[in-house]
Amino acid sequence: MQTNKSHPKPAMEALAHYHELPAEEMKARARAHYEQQKRRRTVRDFDSRPVPREVIEHCLLAAGTAPSGANQQPWHFAVISDPALKRQIREAAEEEERAFYSGRAPEEWLRALAPLGTDPNKPFLEEAPLLIAIFAQKYGIDAQGERFSHYYVPESVGIATGFLITALHDAGLATLTHTPSPMGFLNSLCGRPENEKPVILLVVGYPKPGCLVPVHGGLKKPLAQISTWL
Fold it and tell me: Keywords for this entry (predicted)?
């Protein structure tokens, strides 16, 4: 016999903060946002100057407004500024990177990376004032210590990370998305539980004076290649 489970109706509230804009203002805002975002470049040479904590906290709050599967918000951001911990992270990351570049990576992948000039050495992990280790919560744990499922975790964390990078750029900071693989060492170094998987190590700070970036990184596909109107 099939039974229908009834669920309580969700509490609802008025959409109080939305207001429609005139078409011309919408166009102007969209253009301005694009012009701001297209100036964003991935940076590998960071100044060591500290960043105000309040700036990072508000950028993290912006990331936390991202949509997520069933609004479960399956992310955690570990902000690292301690020099000793940054050194440990650099050592662990470079160990994985050496294995990657010396044999783990297929030749096709190495050819794709060549225009960016990357190699196993990651001094920015120590030089930048902040690292943000982004963790995806594979499942949740309730107040009784029981597991419960999370849904659309990679999609949700990816969206939140995009929000965070955009917020940091808008605040005048530079970033680098670093993804040593595997990066399970971040769980122990950051004291995070086993239900969390580290997915990105975001390097944050000011560009070093005279900073250079690869020309290749600024080449973005045109609208016709990234969109289709049906």
Answer: Flavoprotein, FMN, Oxidoreductase
Alpha-carbon span 223 to 230, nearest angstrom? 15
Domain 42-209 in CATH: superfamily? NADH Oxidase (3.40.109.10)
Question: pLDDT exceeding 70 applies to what percent of the chain?
Answer: 98
Nearest to 192 by CA among 23, 112, 76: 76
| Phi/psi-derived region of residue 48, left when phi > 0, alpha when psi is between -120 and 50, beta in every other case | alpha
pTM listed for this prediction: 0.93
Could you tell me the residue ranges of all domains in the chain?
Answer: 42-209
Distance CA 155, CA 151 (A): 9
Residues 6+ apart with CB under 8 A from 212: 45
As given in the structure block, the two tokens for residue 56 are 């990072």
β 139-141/174-178 pair status:
unpaired
User: How many Cα atoms are found within 13 Å in the side-chain-facing hemisphere of 169?
Assistant: 20
* pLDDT value, residue 118: 84
pLDDT digit string, tens, across residues 51-93: 999 999 999 999 999 999 999 999 999 999 999 999 999 999 9
DSSP 157-209: HHHHHHHHHHHHHHTT-EEEEE--SS-THHHHHHT--TTEEEEEEEEEEPBPT
Tokens of residue 113, six digits? 């990376």
How do residues 89-144 score in pLDDT, each as one tens digit? 999 999 988 888 888 878 898 888 888 888 889 999 999 999 999 999 999 999 99
